[in-house]
């Protein structure tokens, strides 16, 4: 069934320059979807039907109340640093802003406003219109939504190279990733299943886990959740690779603690850019013999 395309004007109040750049990227991506969002163009006097509001504004509560009073049908999304108060009369998302959760929150309000029956699996799978470049664009937006975990200043000395665990039942996928990382001095191990990956994580320390979503014994999203529940591995970055493009799966991955979600194939350049988001500037120590659990 052909999807009806809707277009919505979004006003942005507050936010850092980096967040505003991210919103612009998200809105450009939305032009390839059935629900499309854009900021008002210069000189446009059309009243916005959506408002994205920064809770860090000192008067955000007053602005929210005033705007809803003047425009009851206004679609509002408030961004909080942490969990939203229970009495907020609109949709909310938390920082760091994940583009899939952001779009889902807006989409759900659009459907509710038009009394559309939510059929998430069908709606979200069919959400993107056919376009050959959509996966590459989505991957680019995903990278831009990831904040650096470290300030890249004075290099940190590592006793061993940063550890990367690849979790994928397909040896060809492991060989592809390890070959692309070979020139970067990363220490790369391979697990064929979620259980094998958990065994590796018990014995060794890894900076990054790159996993397929389709594993023989457990879903890759579930594996991310298990890793993040371990107190000693919460600062292990988790990157999921998949063929599933739906926003629903992306949102579930984010809720499980997944740090990045990419549609296959991801280019070596984008994989390297992503990994640098999760690593400090580093250099190797000159010590010849070092323990496996260093770094």
UniProtKB/TrEMBL annotation:
The keyword Phosphoprotein applies. The keyword Manganese does not apply. GO terms for biological process: phosphorelay signal transduction system. Residues 163-279 form the Response regulatory domain. The modification 4-aspartylphosphate is found at residue 212. It holds the Pfam family Response_reg. Keywords: Phosphoprotein. Gene3D superfamilies: 3.40.50.2300. This is Response regulator. It comes from Parvibium lacunae.
């Amino acid at each position: 069934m052909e999807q009806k395309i809707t277009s919505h004007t979004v006003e942005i109040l507050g936010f850092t320059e980096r967040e505003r750049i991210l919103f612009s990227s998200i809105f450009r991506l939305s032009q390839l979807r059935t629900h499309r969002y854009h900021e008002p163009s210069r000189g446009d006097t059309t009243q916005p039907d959506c408002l994205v509001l920064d809770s860090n504004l000192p008067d955000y509560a007053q602005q929210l109340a005033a705007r809803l009073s003047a425009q009851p049908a206004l679609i509002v999304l408030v961004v909080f640093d942490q969990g939203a108060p229970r009495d907020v009369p609109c949709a909310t998302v938390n920082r760091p802003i994940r583009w899939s959760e952001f779009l889902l929150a807006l989409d759900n309000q659009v459907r509710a406003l038009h009394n559309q029956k939510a059929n998430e699996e069908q709606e979200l799978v069919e959400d993107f219109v056919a376009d050959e470049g959509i996966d590459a664009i989505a991957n680019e937006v995903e990278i831009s939504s990831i904040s650096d975990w470290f300030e890249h200043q004075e290099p940190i000395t590592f006793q061993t190279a940063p550890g990367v665990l690849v979790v994928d039942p397909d040896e060809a996928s492991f060989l592809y990733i390890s070959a692309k990382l070979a020139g970067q001095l990363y220490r790369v191990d391979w697990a064929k299943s979620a259980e094998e990956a958990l065994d590796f994580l018990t014995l060794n320390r890894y900076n990054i886990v790159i996993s397929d979503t389709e594993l023989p014994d457990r879903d890759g999203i579930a594996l991310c959740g298990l890793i993040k529940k371990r107190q000693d591995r919460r600062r292990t970055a988790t990157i999921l690779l998949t063929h599933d493009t739906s926003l629903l799966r992306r949102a579930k991955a984010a809720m499980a603690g997944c740090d990045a979600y990419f549609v296959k194939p991801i280019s070596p350049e984008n994989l390297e850019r992503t990994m640098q988001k999760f690593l400090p500037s580093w250099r190797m120590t000159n010590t010849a013999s070092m323990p496996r659990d260093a770094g």
